[in-house]
Amino acid sequence: MDNSQQQYLYYCMWKQRTLLVLFVMLVLWWSKKKERKNRAKSVKYGPLVKRDIWRSTELIRLIDTLERTCLHQLRMYPAVFYKLCAHLRDKNLLVDTIHVSVEEQLAMFLKIVGQYHTHSSVGFALWRSKETVSRYFNIVLCALVKLAREIICTRSTDTHAKITTNPNRLYPYFEGCIGALYGTHIRERVPSKYVDRFRGRKPYPTQNVLAAVDFDLRFTYVLAGWEGSAHDSAVLHDALSRPNGLKIPEGVPWSESSNLSKRVVQPPSFLTKDNGRASLCSY
Hints:
By secondary structure, the protein is of the alpha/beta class.
């Protein structure tokens, strides 16, 4: 056997070994792929019907068992909760889906905003993924923002019956007063570069929120978003100067905190509580 034939023989043997190795690698790759596919198929989830029963049981325990449980967990009584669900459904702001009812959507939202729960904890309690909880949280939030224009408004400028039926103590001193204004600080989570702007008299970042209520304790105006370091008078001035801000009929007084009225340039008349006495401040 000459040299050329020997080289050709070595080449054929090398080629066979290479093809054999490639074949073995291909078989191993295919077997691993099939194993992963079978492993993925072997994951068994609970029947959807059973999960729906668990969720319904949890909602019943949360809402219908005890009034104080519903009030503590969702911050409202069961009757108010169901009335709000019906109103959102009638206005077509929220709709029932195949998997999530309006009641469950609203309950998830209220547990997060009322109890400061995380999406993962709410999802664990209701057998939902964090993505599902986050998605319906945003849906309910948008629906309530639209509904706020209808609910948060001044309903009447007449003197309330609680004043007219309480002579000597409230009437005629608060005649024409339609509500109360107050500023409060609500804890806020902000990026680290904005923390100083939101830190005021509290040891943690807050929003300075202005709220107005009538004598039935119904909100008539809310302004949120101001930094905790902002003065109450600046928040009130901003509320009065906005095109769609706080509107007070001429000559109608409001009861307010004394800090709100300081340094305000053009507000209407307010009844401010100063040193325990109510006095009419004119600007």
